[in-house]
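hey can u check if this looks right to u? its 235 residues, i copy pasted from the old doc so theres a chance i mangled smth
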Amino acid sequence: MRSGVKDERYSFITVVLVCFFLSAFVFPIPVYATGEIVSWGDRKLPDQPLTNLTQIAAGGAHSLGLKTDGSIVAWGYNGQGQCDVPSPNTNFTAIAAGYKHSLGLKTDGSIVAWGKNDFGQCDVPSPNTGFTAIAAGGYYSLGLKTDGSIVAWGDNSTGQCTVPLPNTDFTAIAAGYEHSLGLKTDGSIVAWGRNNEGQCDVPSPNTGFTAIAAGDYHSLGLKTENSKKFLLLSI
């Protein structure tokens, strides 16, 4: 009796192992190349493989990817030219995607902007030099300068482009749909623009932040404790 049970157990294990090995051929486990994107949701990736990417950015209905060679690839909705990267498509170091416009930061510190420009969100203010970071909002754009100041342009209907004073000592920027965030050298966050959902009400204590991110109607700040905690500024 025990022998029969043992035989059945071994038979069951054998069947499981055979099914496992067969599944590797019928339903192979995906293996991704270095720097390849995995995408899900409404907008899918192009048919060709996207590899050797170092940065990615998601806009309203389009996506951007920065390649190791300094070029930008773009895909998704292109009704306003937000996926038409201007030539020469070289020497980019950072990317940002707004609702229907795109930004690229060059190695020389200049910003290239393309796509929908009904509010001047693609008209980079002069002098277009000395930028170290970029962020794209709904219909506006932000650029962080080497001196720690923020330059903002485009739609300012809710004050999202009116950087609070003193406009100094910023180390990072983030752009939501109609509100903006700036991270200071002392670890505090400055928020301005539309605040209908409390997205600009930074919780106390406003200290110890190391990174920021802005959504349509909410904001995030990463704290230093264990580099794992975060605060949600609105719902």
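Residues 1-31 form one domain.
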